[in-house]
From TrEMBL:
Residues 117-279 form the Uracil-DNA glycosylase-like domain. This is Type-4 uracil-DNA glycosylase. Keywords: 4Fe-4S, DNA damage, DNA repair, Hydrolase, Iron, Iron-sulfur, Metal-binding. GO terms for molecular function: 4 iron, 4 sulfur cluster binding; metal ion binding; uracil DNA N-glycosylase activity. Its EC number is 3.2.2.27. Belongs to the uracil-DNA glycosylase (UDG) superfamily. Type 4 (UDGa) family. SMART domains: UDG, UreE_C. Transmembrane segments: none annotated.
């Protein structure tokens, strides 16, 4: 695909060490459509145990009686989570003590994106970026992808007109929500344990169901394995590079695989591949957007 990018976006790609051919114009140009959600601060939600407990005393009782760190304790059932709206899901994550990571975290990291409406609906975001788990800074700040890796991710997204805030600098952007597979930091940034992933999976699944993104970008080996474990045979043994360049599926949503920004910071040559992955994701988004527009036109004609 080709992208018609402005000078600011080209500068961002230069910063990423990505050199591409710049078309003067074309059908593949990125549209400057209005953002799908109004910009503004993310709706206040409890980020940590203390805030959640203040809002829900029953969580305080549950956490006070939490067994030793290696013991898995109850959380809301998967069935209950499936019925939650966006604020209820935020609250459930903020107070979750379902796995040992609740003992060592400073904050849960639910995700970030454009402001959610006040009526319980999720933010409107066509793009969903999914990473692995919070690191040290994310744990402290309660937000995913901060620091140098977060800055690189933001620049990559801005280069295709996408932003975690929906709009910046008065320019319209397509909106992205950014979340992790795990909502709590594994101590020392160790790999997540299978039981931790299993306990946390219903939250991510519900986020996807509520957001209904047009495309998911899975960043890094762990996120890719978690999302594609039911659809790609032997995904754990498959190198990430062999999963790139195809459109996968997660609960009916197209998934594009790419490298984690933290890896890209250490591997400059891979940035060009990440740019190709973003272009593939943009192709997917454009096709789905066009199909949606056509469907709405048909409905308008009928109704
Ligand atoms: S990692 Fe997920 S399942 Fe474990 S305590 Fe945090 S929110 Fe709950």
């Amino acid at each position: 695909m080709s992208l018609d990018l402005d000078a600011r976006q080209r500068a961002m790609l230069e910063e990423m060490h990505v050199h591409v051919w710049w078309p003067e114009s074309g059908e593949g140009a990125v549209s400057a459509a209005a953002p799908v959600a109004a910009p503004g601060p993310v709706r206040a939600a409890p980020k940590n145990i203390a805030e959640a407990m203040a809002a829900a005393p029953e969580l305080a009782a549950a956490h006070a009686s939490t067994p030793p760190a290696t013991t898995i304790v109850a959380r809301a059932s998967a069935g209950d989570i499936e019925g939650m709206d966006w604020p209820a899901l935020q609250q459930a994550v903020a107070g979750c003590v379902a796995c040992a990571l609740s003992k060592s975290r400073k904050n849960t990291v639910f995700g970030v994106g454009p402001a959610a409406p006040a009526d319980g609906r999720p933010p409107q975001a066509d793009w969903l970026i999914i990473g692995e788990a919070p690191g040290e800074n994310e744990d402290i700040q309660g937000e995913p992808f901060v620091g140098q890796a977060g800055k690189l991710l933001d620049n990559m997204l801005k280069a295709i007109g996408v932003s975690r805030h929906g709009a910046e600098d008065g320019q319209p952007h397509k909106a992205a929500c950014i979340v992790n597979v795990l909502k709590c930091r594994p101590p020392g940034n160790r790999n997540p344990a299978p039981e931790e992933v299993a306990q946390c999976a219903p939250y991510l699944r519900r986020q996807v169901e509520l957001l209904q993104p047009k495309v998911i970008i899975a960043m890094g080996r762990f996120a890719v394995q978690s999302l594609l474990q039911d659809t790609v045979p032997d995904v754990v043994a498959t190198p990430l590079g062999r999963l790139r360049g195809k459109v996968h599926q997660y609960h009916g949503v197209p998934v594009v695989v790419t490298y984690h920004p933290a890896y890209l910071l250490r591997s400059l040559p891979e940035k060009a591949k990440a740019w190709a992955d973003l272009c593939l994701a943009m192709d997917v988004w454009k096709k789905r957007k066009a199909a949606e527009t056509a469907q709405l036109a048909v409905q308008a004609e009928i109704g």
